[in-house]
Amino acid sequence: MKVPFLDLKAQYASIKPQIDAAIQGVVDATEFVGGRALKELEASFAKEHRAKHCIGVANGTDALVIILKCLGVGPGDTVLTAANSFIASSEAVTLAGAAVRFVDCGPDYTIDVAALERALDAAKKAGKPVRAILPVHLYGRVCDMARIGELAKAHGAAIVEDCAQAHLGERDGGVVGSFGAAASFSFYPGKNLGAYGDGGAITSNDDALALKMRMYANHGRKEKYDHEFEGTNSRLDNLQAAILNVKLAHLREWTKARVAVADRYRERLAGTPNLELPAAAPGFGHVYHLFVVRVPDRERVRARLKEQGIDTGVHYPNTLPSLPAYAHVGQGKGEFPNASAYESQILSLPIYPEMSEAQIDWVSEHLRRAVT
Ligand SMILES: *Cc1c(COP(=O)(O)O)cnc(C)c1O
Question: Average pLDDT over the chain, rounded to whole?
Answer without folding.
Answer: 97
